[in-house]
Amino acid sequence: MMNLLNYILWDPDLIAFKLGPIPLLGTIAVRWYGLLWVIGLTLAYLVVKRLYKEQKIKDEYFDPLFIYCFLGILIGARLGHCIFYEPDYFLTSGKGLIEMILPIRLGDDGSWLGQTFGFHIIGYAGLASHGGTLGLMIALWMYVRKTKLGIWTVLDNIAIATGTTACFIRLGNLMNSEIIGKITDVPWAFIFEKVDAVPRHPGQLYEAIAYAILFVIMWTLHKKKPEKIGTGWYFGFCLTYIFTFRFFIEYTKEIQEAFEASLPIDMGQILSIPFIILGTYCMIKAKKKA
């Protein structure tokens, strides 16, 4: 019989801090999830900026990169969640389509916005990492068409920094008590009190640690092998590492949507396979080129 006193009770406040009151909008609550997203993106921004300086790439090419990456990740992650995980809600009504595109929920929640305009701001409640990765790749393709930089140089630089953003996004999931793991009796199990009262694998923490290790590996390798930047090897290694780990860590997670119960492997694993194949291909191609 499980002794629940031996496990980690997890019930953090979702709100990191509050801003306001702001005229018309009232008090705005800044959630840990959004804050950690911003921290992760900012760290990646600083890492890539340093890489550009090391490679003597002009500042005029770096300046628009953050906007391309931010919009690509956000739009891709949002559409990925809505299309792959909740299509019945977001793709079957005008209300769903509006809520898919805008960070709002239609209806009156008692706030000034809700009472006056019939909607309230909730942020994007639902983002998928696979969609974010695909959105980022499309955004970077658009970026290199604009700047005329080498696509593999840009992809390798972004790949070296990716572990920082991925780590903080998963810490945001942990603060939200979402994407929870399966029931377990391991001594480091978390009891997500917002969900239930049983010990579960902290899958979000597993991933956050793995992505922090990825950044350390990538940063160390780029210092030893800077000549590989521009071959696509770092990009390939990043994809292969992240999505291979993601494939196996899914075995410790609960399914996110009911329809996944009828699948031989869950949606996260299905979506990981193409990225693993692409990453492996890029690494092999880079090795042959070398």
TrEMBL record:
A GO MF label: phosphatidylglycerol-prolipoprotein diacylglyceryl transferase activity
UniProt keywords, alphabetically: Cell membrane, Lipoprotein, Membrane, Transferase, Transmembrane, Transmembrane helix
Membrane topology qualifier: Multi-pass membrane protein
Pathway: Protein modification; lipoprotein biosynthesis (diacylglyceryl transfer)
Transmembrane segments: 30-48, 60-80, 121-144, 151-171, 203-221, 233-249, 261-284
Biological role: Catalyzes the transfer of the diacylglyceryl group from phosphatidylglycerol to the sulfhydryl group of the N-terminal cysteine of a prolipoprotein, the first step in the formation of mature lipoproteins.
The protein's name: Phosphatidylglycerol--prolipoprotein diacylglyceryl transferase
UniProt organism field: Xylanibacter ruminicola
